[in-house]
Amino acid sequence: MYVPRIYCNQLIKINTIIPLKKNTIHYCINVIRLQAGDLIHIFNNTNNIFISKILDINKNNIFIKIIKKKKENKESPTNIHLGQCYSKRMKFTIEKSVELGIKSITPIIINKPSIITKISKKICYWNKLIISACMQSQRNIIPKLNTPSTIYQWCNSIPQKSTKIIFNIDAKKNICDVSNKYNNIYILIGSEKGFNNNETKYTKEKKFLNVKLGPRILRTETASIVAIAALQVHLGDI
């Protein structure tokens, strides 16, 4: 039986009555067409869902009663962190990587004011997209959207005890060669043009593993999804 899921960013207690946020009213009434008496599942960035009942619903307010708490952990045992060079198809990359169980996403930028300004205007939208993808895929933990960084900043922020991967069609290793030594895996996906010599040299200095995703050249949004899916099959929960 399908039960709608709504994200509620607050502490939730059993047998309490709470209002839903104003920004969910349109979705509840006009998209999934909820009515008084309907059951919904509330999630709040914990490994729990809260089975709730709609008491009153109108164009101004929605009040629900929290009936029961149920533990539901759908997070991958492997924490995959994506460093994705900005592309025009970031919406697709973010949405699908969340569905596949990504832990965090960092937009990687070329250090140009025009790109930084463009990305800053999309952060709010991307965060909403992440929540929407969690609702669809029934994830209860919201993946973190990190502050946009340069490749150098992102590489320097990676904890020491982590596996770091960069993808190269000429690499000798593939996903099956990636060790499960560390639970955190950081993958760096380049732009359509790939990485320049300085960037490639820097990732080598930072001891990134060179891994290939097959013999074909993939578009940037395809590469990120293929890499995450392959890692989930190899080390995760697919």
From TrEMBL:
Entry keywords, A to Z: Cytoplasm, Methyltransferase, rRNA processing, S-adenosyl-L-methionine, Transferase
Top-level EC class as recorded in UniProt: transferase
GO annotation (BP), single: rRNA base methylation
Catalyses which reaction(s): uridine(1498) in 16S rRNA + S-adenosyl-L-methionine = N(3)-methyluridine(1498) in 16S rRNA + S-adenosyl-L-homocysteine + H(+)
GO CC field: cytoplasm
SUPFAM superfamilies found in the cross-reference section: alpha/beta knot (SSF75217), PUA domain-like (SSF88697)
Domain Ribosomal RNA small subunit methyltransferase E PUA-like as annotated: residue spans: 21-67
Presence of keyword S-adenosyl-L-methionine: yes
Transmembrane spans: none
Signal peptide positions on this chain: none
EC number: 2.1.1.193
Compartment(s) of residence: Cytoplasm
GO-annotated molecular function: rRNA (uridine-N3-)-methyltransferase activity
Pfam families xref list: Methyltrans_RNA, PUA_4
Domain Ribosomal RNA small subunit methyltransferase E methyltransferase: 74-232
Family: Belongs to the RNA methyltransferase RsmE family.
Function: Specifically methylates the N3 position of the uracil ring of uridine 1498 (m3U1498) in 16S rRNA. Acts on the fully assembled 30S ribosomal subunit.
PANTHER family reported for this sequence: 16S RRNA (URACIL(1498)-N(3))-METHYLTRANSFERASE, RIBOSOMAL RNA SMALL SUBUNIT METHYLTRANSFERASE E
Name under which the protein is recorded: Ribosomal RNA small subunit methyltransferase E
Biological source species: Buchnera aphidicola
Lineage: Bacteria, Pseudomonadati, Pseudomonadota, Gammaproteobacteria, Enterobacterales
Gene name of the encoded protein: rsmE
